[in-house]
Design a protein that fits this description.
Elements (H helix, E strand, L loop, with lengths): L3 H34 L3 H21 L9 E11 L2 H14 L3 E8 L9 E9 L3 H9 L3 E11 L1 H27 L3 H33 E10 L10 H32 L1 H36 L1
Parallel strand pairs: 1-5
Antiparallel strand pairs: 1-4, 2-3, 3-5
Helix pairs in contact: 5-6
């Protein structure tokens, strides 16, 4: 027993030393590869920086989509031309070329020697052709003034479209309710509401189309003025003689008609005229018969006095 106990202790120490060396070597082998596989902080920060720069570049490169403004454009122009009549023909050709419309024409001919021949024309052209049309019109003569006004109606268009969408959804819902309605009273009530909604839809749809039409086409108010005041040429001698003859014959005819009318009036009132003439004749005859008697009565008185 005394000999075996030291041997057992020595063998236990030897086995413990072997196990400790094996464990230490295994731990060393495990920690060394993991340390080599893990990246450093600088290596981890580089890809993150590259990713952030790529995102910022893409954000700057991609343009922000903005809604296109819906503009109603109106233009006015006054042009001094040599001939208003020829300029009106040229305006018609320009409008046909630009696929526009001539809405109105008001021409004023000169009435006095100092007045000018003028014309006011209302035009409508596609909005994308407004600038080119104004340039063509400016070539007709000398531009005295030129104005362009624009109004953005994008918000109004969006509002009308939203209201129209909501009203159409309401119309569909009311139609479903009407299909499920049982009593006549409910059907009439829903039908009245449906009629009001449809009337609102028609009104808003008309306003929307009107705005869209004004956006698509631009209006131009063009004023043409002659460069020199027009004077009426002197008429020929033959036309003046013809006019005098016409005036004289008209006057003779009017005088003849006046005499005929006067004769008709005299014929109608002839009984009264005859009575008046008879009274005047009787009175004058009575005066003549009474005059000798008065003389005879006055003569004796005169003799007695002597």
């Amino acid at each position: 027993m005394y000999i075996s106990t030291p041997l057992i202790r020595k063998s236990a120490l030897f086995v413990s030393a072997l196990l400790g060396g094996a464990i230490f070597s295994s731990c060393a082998s495990v920690h060394s590869p993991s340390n080599q596989a893990l990246p450093s902080s600088a290596d981890r920060a580089a890809p993150i920086a590259e990713t952030a720069s790529d995102v910022s570049q893409k954000t700057q490169a991609a343009p922000v989509s903005r809604p296109r403004p819906q503009l109603i454009k109106k233009a006015s122009m006054t042009v001094i031309v040599n001939s208003v009549d020829k300029s009106i023909d040229s305006v018609s050709q320009i409008i046909n070329k630009q696929q526009g419309d001539l809405i109105g024409l008001q021409e004023q001919q000169p009435t006095r020697n100092s007045s000018r021949h003028t014309a006011s024309i209302e035009l409508r052209v596609p909005q994308n052709s407004l600038e080119s049309t104004l340039e063509e019109l400016a070539k007709l003569g000398t531009v005295e003034n030129r104005n362009i006004a624009a109004e953005d109606v994008g918000d109004r268009l969006v509002d009308f479209q939203a209201r129209l969408t909501n009203l159409r959804k309401t119309e569909a819902n009311l139609q479903k309710i009407m299909d499920r309605a049982g009593s006549v009273r409910d059907v009439l009530s829903v039908a009245q509401e449906l009629s009001n909604v449809r009337q609102s839809i028609e009104q808003i749809d008309a306003q929307l189309k009107n705005l869209q039409n004004q956006v698509a086409y631009s209006a131009i108010a063009l004023n043409l003025e002659a460069a020199v005041s027009s004077s009426s040429p002197q008429r020929a001698v033959g036309s003046q003689i013809q006019e005098t003859w016409n005036n004289s014959t008209n006057s003779f005819g009017a005088f003849t008609v006046g005499l005929l009318k006067l004769g008709i009036w005299l014929i109608v009132y002839s009984p009264y005229l005859l009575i008046l003439a008879a009274g005047i004749y009787s009175f004058s005859r009575w005066r003549r018969t009474q005059s000798p008697r008065l003389r005879l009565l006055q003569t004796p008185e005169s003799t007695d006095s002597e």
